[in-house]
Specification:
The protein is of the alpha/beta class and 245 residues long. The chain contains 8 helices and 12 strands. 33% of the residues lie in helices and 19% in strands. Strands 3, 4, 5, 10, 11 and 12 form a 6-stranded parallel sheet that branches. Strands 1-2 form a two-stranded antiparallel ribbon. Helix 7 links the parallel strand 10 and strand 11.
């Protein structure tokens, strides 16, 4: 029943975290509808594949334990990880592949840097990042993405409206598990352990050399052992544009 509700996009809620200090950017927050009293608590695991390689520790754990996830891929990651894409496509019950942009450029149409990464800087460049990522996902999977998550997860209000106008929902989150795969495994485990019914977890699946990946595995297996159900994001609700703070 829970999977059906999320697949239909019925009561998904979007809000926004406070804007970054000194900037007009928002970090959208996404949560799932809460489970009914007689159902298992549930969370959505979302994984960003920004560039580089694939963390097989995470992917193999998901397959072995039948844990679904929504994976946000960039065009450049897709080009370098064909075998991993085949693995995900061979398990459509587990993996939902969505758009993380063409080149992992923040979808902000202001000339600025976000976490040291130069933003798109114009509406035209935001469109190119979204549409380029969409084309790469279609080429790799044969289906158009429904969700978009920009690099860094931060957006300005105009860019959010533009992304929505391009036909994709913005995929926020409510728990940052690994801070871009920079945290040690123990810290990642603690953050995932804090998850509650309806949370959307973000972690990274493109840094196999970091200890954070081991923490992702430990954390999600611990949640499963506590009785949590994992779900994919499924079809976004309409309208799907988060409010800017």
């Amino acid at each position: 029943m829970i999977r059906a509700l999320i697949a239909a996009g019925l009561i998904l809620a979007c809000a926004a975290l406070p804007a970054m200090s000194g900037t007009p950017l928002s970090e959208p927050r996404l949560i799932l509808p809460h489970a009914a009293a007689h159902q298992q608590p549930h969370v959505a695991l979302t994984l960003d594949a920004c560039s580089g390689k694939a963390d097989q520790r995470i992917l193999q754990a998901l397959v072995a334990n039948h844990i679904p996830a929504t994976v946000f891929v960039t065009g450049r990651w897709l080009r370098r990880n064909g075998d991993t894409v085949k693995l995900m496509l061979s398990h459509p019950d587990l993996f939902q592949i969505e758009n993380h942009g063409a080149k992992h450029i923040p979808a902000v149409d202001l000339p600025m840097k976000v976490y040291g990464i130069a933003a798109a800087g114009s509406p035209e460049a935001v469109k190119a990042e979204v549409e380029g990522g969409k084309a790469a996902v279609i080429a790799a999977t044969g289906r158009a993405p429904m969700w978009f998550r920009g690099a860094t997860g931060r957006y300005d209000t105009a860019a959010m409206a533009e992304i929505h106008g391009l036909g994709e929902a913005i995929a926020g989150y409510s728990i940052r598990a690994d801070d871009g795969a920079t945290l040690p495994a123990a810290a990642v485990v603690r953050r995932i352990a804090s998850a509650r019914d309806g949370d959307v977890i973000i972690a990274h699946v493109n840094k196999p050399g970091r200890t954070s990946g081991a923490g992702v595995v430990q954390g999600i297996l611990a949640l499963k052992a506590r009785g949590y159900l994992f779900v994919k994001l499924g079809v976004p609700p309409k309208p799907a544009t988060p409010h800017a703070s």
